[in-house]
Write a structure and sequence with these properties.
single chain; mainly beta; three-stranded antiparallel beta sheet; 7% helix; globular; binds zinc ion
């Protein structure tokens, strides 16, 4: 929409990072919501504007942190707070 798009590298591959890594959330090691694995692939993503508009959540139209479980593939989204 009207916002400046985040400049991504040419490759958009989700798993371009070679190694999954531990993720700390507020100082604690994060665990997968589903399988409790503790290694994740991490990338920043752009929340779908159209979906957010549909749900009247335009205020969420920002970049969010996307953390993908290296074991089961469950995607955990983190929104910037404040
Ligand atoms: Zn998992």
């Amino acid at each position: 929409m009207g916002r400046t798009a985040t400049a991504y590298p040419a490759q958009m591959g989700l798993f371009q990072q070679a190694e999954p890594q531990q993720v700390q959330i507020l100082g604690s090691p994060m665990r997968c919501e589903i399988c409790h694995h503790d290694l994740f692939y991490q990338r920043e993503g752009k929340i779908q504007t159209t979906a957010m508009t549909f749900f009247d959540l335009d205020w969420l139209n920002a970049s969010a942190n996307c953390v993908v479980c290296a074991q089961c593939g469950y995607v955990h989204w983190f929104l910037p707070i404040g």
